[in-house]
Amino acid sequence: MSELITAELVDLDLSAATKDAAARSLAERMVAAHRVTDLDGFLADVAAREAQMPTGLDGGIGIPHCRSEHVSAPTLAFGRSARGIDFGAADGPADLIFLIAAPAGADDDHLTILSGLARRLMDPEFTAALRAGDDPGTVAALIRGEEPAPEPEAATPIRTAEEAAPAEDAAPFRIVAVTSCPTGIAHTYMAAESLTAAGRAEGVEVTVETQGSAGFSKLDPAVIAAADAVIWAHDVEVREKGRFRGKPLVDVGVKAGINRPAELIAEARRKAERGEIAAVPQGEGGDGAEGGADGGSGADRAHFGVRLRTYLMSGVSYMVPFVAAGGLLIALSFAIGGYEVADAKSVADHFVWGQADSWAALLNQIGSAAFGFLVPVLAGYIAYGMADRPALVPGFVGGAIALTVEAGFLGGLVAGLLAGAVVMAIQRVPVHPTLRGIMPVLVIPLIASAVVGFLMFIVVGKPIAALQSALTDWLNGLSGSNAVILGVVLGLMMCFDMGGPLNKVAYAFAVGGLTDPTDGSLKVMAAVMAAGMVPPLALALATAVRKKLFTKTERENGRAAWVLGASFITEGAIPFAAADPLRVIPSVMAGGAVTGALSMAFGCTLRAPHGGVFVVPLIGEPFLYLLAIGAGTLVATALVVLLKGARRTAAVPAGEATAAGARVGVTA
């Protein structure tokens, strides 16, 4: 691994406070070492990979990584953080951060070495040595394997597909597993090592097929035939699924294979004992031959749903900054110059420095320019999430056409999905090696843009525009009980997962209405933001009025939740929901439903897509709006306190409660 990491690529005092800052700091070392050619382009690829799935692992490890055309040579940078950096791991921040950069066409030898590192990270003695090292050169040598360091048990190495063979006197229970992740660099091999180590501890023989970037070596058919159960720990489609037909199957994401392998093995054993057989497609073994007429197995459909959600959330996540910047600028322009500023002349032709109206018009037109990117960015990054960089051009083109044919937000969604699907289809076509270099930069964008443009202009654009118009008319026609019911539904969605998929769907629905604002869409935006503020505000209030029901850490989180709730950051309630979901989540959902219903009933409107209480002056019926938020917060707080108090009372045995009461009586 000597060409992958050197002392200059090691930072034993990483001062970054966020994962983005950590990636930038380590990437700058790669640029200085002439391993990365475009810092911002590479970091965009790292961020896109991070958006697919957090790269934090239990045990204080963060492994941001990606393939990128901006990487000139496979490279590994290492940083050690004293304060810890949140990479999304369940057990807290990471102090060991590995930034792995692989070229778009990285060779198998380098990726094999990187996969070896991923496996070694599962060894606690190796990570302990990394934490104890005090010299960058020594740590780099340790990572390269040149320094004597604890290795995984040599007597029981991971059994890979090419090494495994059926044995007559093997362990009493045999499992074959497949691990894979989107980039196939780290998680794939860490999950393999974790499952194998857990199998050794449980006395179970686990044979793993790693479908990663370092190659795809099939399990011996005899090994599969002898297996008692199958585990798939994957975030991309398992190749040649038909080989595993007729076996009990545990089908999970790759991080489950890393973080809870013993649970997966136990579940596989239970399924085998019950005789559960998975409905794996009966293909000939190739990817293209496996789907049945019904669209594949239930597991396949479930994974398609997960992937579809990931694609849509990728587009929404890139769209939100445009929405926030553009929407807040437009809202501020209205606050300064009134709604008529939207009809002002172009400030490029007419601008008076000393007139407030000119400044209002300037803000409005800048915000409108930012808003104009909303639908193309949504479509472009949905396509990007599906088929990577070659899909950006047809995605943006499709999104722009959606605006041209007045298909709006819905048109952007469809255009992004079409662009991604078309590019994925083109990528499946075998081409001569001499053409591979120009495929992603010329051939694919050219053909895909033409196909998506044809579909959007001629086939689907107008029907979607009609549907968008009907939706707008429906929103404008909402009144009375219909509006209240919609407010209830949106409030429930905003508070159910607090920043998760349902929350994002409700928010995206509201933001989509701002692309062509009407009275109905502005009411929806108001209800969504009001309901999203309730969870953190309610938990903050609950920790203040009944401190004894919460831990010291929760009370500290409660103080921060005041600001988060007031700023419309629903995620501020997540620590409370994670600690006690059965009591917290129903309580805040009830409060959100009350707030959403009242906001719609009061006819509150909102032109800004974000801002919380800081944009109250821009809200229609601001006092009633605050009343709706207050009512929902009180309802959620009361339910949280009631449910937590009931749990605490129930936890005290009856005899102890009686004795406690007697002691109180004596004291009195």
TrEMBL record:
| Annotated keywords | Cell membrane, Kinase, Membrane, Phosphoprotein, Phosphotransferase system, Sugar transport, Transferase, Transmembrane, Transmembrane helix, Transport
GO annotation (BP), single: phosphoenolpyruvate-dependent sugar phosphotransferase system
Q: Name one GO cellular component term.
A: plasma membrane
Record-annotated PTS EIIA type-2 domain positions = 3-146
Which Gene3D superfamilies does the record match to this protein? 3.40.50.2300, Mannitol-specific EII, Chain A
Q: Name one GO molecular function term.
A: kinase activity
Bias type Gly residues, positions: 283-296
Its main localization is: membrane
Its annotated compartments are: Cell inner membrane; Cytoplasm
Residue limits of the PTS EIIB type-2 domain? 175-270
PANTHER family for the chain? FRUCTOSE-LIKE PERMEASE, FRUCTOSE-LIKE PTS SYSTEM EIIBC COMPONENT-RELATED
Name by which UniProt lists this protein: PTS lactose transporter subunit IIC
Q: Which source organism does the UniProt entry give?
A: Kitasatospora albolonga
